[in-house]
Write a structure and sequence with these properties.
The chain has a three-stranded antiparallel beta sheet. The chain is elongated. It is built from seven helices and ten strands. Helix 3 crosses helix 5. The chain has three domains: about 80 residues, no CATH class; about 110 residues, Tetrahydropterin Synthase, Chain A (2-Layer Sandwich); about 35 residues, no CATH class. It is of the alpha+beta class. Strand 2 and strand 3 form a beta hairpin.
């Protein structure tokens, strides 16, 4: 009877023990069985017994269940910035200090490959080395004068293009490269500024000469035009025209109400001589 009672008690306790054990295991492994991916991040799953890193799927933001023996690695997928300041050599071997920054982010669809081949420290392993290599290569093609005066935008674009080629192969998306400052040795900077000032003064002098030549040509053309006009006018004035104008003037004066004495000249030109008060 006692044996039967013990068996019954055991049968009653066993389900309860199983449930309690399951609850305890769930509590213990809950943190290993769930993961929350925050905003602006993506997850890469490592499957311990199923081939390692899942390179084909990137897990989205939110709550996820996973087997307790697997692991989820989180990557920030928003745009990030890295700043670099380094000394590089120009084409003629002078040392130039360049301060620049880059905007980058991991490629969402390639996050598994990034984790498998490079890892979470990809900024230090590939982004910064690629930027430095491109900056040295590009700046080394130009002289300090070109860098200081006219080629800054071109250098920025070329650094971006060369860095992008390198990072595309490493599953990183490069969005922009910005040159914040370029510092030349003081003696070189002073020499370049002096040369640029002399060139500017030479251009201003050439401009003034050109303007003076244009003004002289304008005055010559104007004088020639006036001379031709006077010649034509002189040729067109005859004694008949002068006599006609004198007669017309005499008629108008005769019609005026003001008291006057009009004497018609007899010198051949027919022009009047007017005597009288002007009112």
């Amino acid at each position: 009877m006692n044996q039967q009672q013990q068996n019954l008690d055991f049968k009653r306790i066993l389900p309860i023990a199983i449930i309690v054990g399951a609850v305890l295991l769930l509590i213990i492994f809950w943190s290993r069985m769930t993961v929350t991916i925050p905003a602006g991040h993506g997850g890469v799953l490592f499957k311990l017994f199923a081939g390692g890193v899942d390179t084909e799927m990137t897990y989205k933001e939110g709550f996820h269940f996973l087997a307790p023996w697997n692991s989820m690695y989180l990557y920030e997928t928003r745009q990030q910035e890295v700043a670099e300041e380094m000394n590089v050599l120009s084409s003629n071997g002078l040392e130039i200090r360049v301060d620049f920054s880059a905007w980058y982010q991991p490629k969402w669809e390639k996050l598994g490959y990034l984790h498998s081949q490079i890892g979470t420290d990809y900024m230090r392993r590939v982004v910064i080395p690629s930027l430095r290599s491109a900056a040295r290569s590009v700046v080394g093609r130009y002289t300090p004068e070109q860098i200081y005066s006219t080629k800054r935008d071109a250098i920025q674009i070329e650094i971006f293009d060369e860095t992008k080629k390198l990072l595309d192969e490493k599953y990183v998306q490069l969005n922009q490269v910005l040159i914040r400052s370029i510092t030349l040795p003081p003696t070189i900077k002073t020499a370049i500024e002096s040369k640029l000032k002399q060139e500017q003064e030479a251009l201003e002098y050439e401009f003034k000469l050109e303007k003076a030549e244009q003004e002289a040509e304008r005055q010559r053309i104007d004088a020639e035009g006036k001379a031709r006009a006077n010649k034509i006018l002189s040729a067109s004035i005859t004694e008949s025209i002068l006599r006609e104008k004198g007669i017309n003037a005499t008629l108008k004066l005769a019609e005026s109400p003001n008291s006057k004495v009009v004497i018609i000249g007899n010198s051949g030109d027919g022009l009047p001589i007017i005597l009288g008060d002007n009112k």
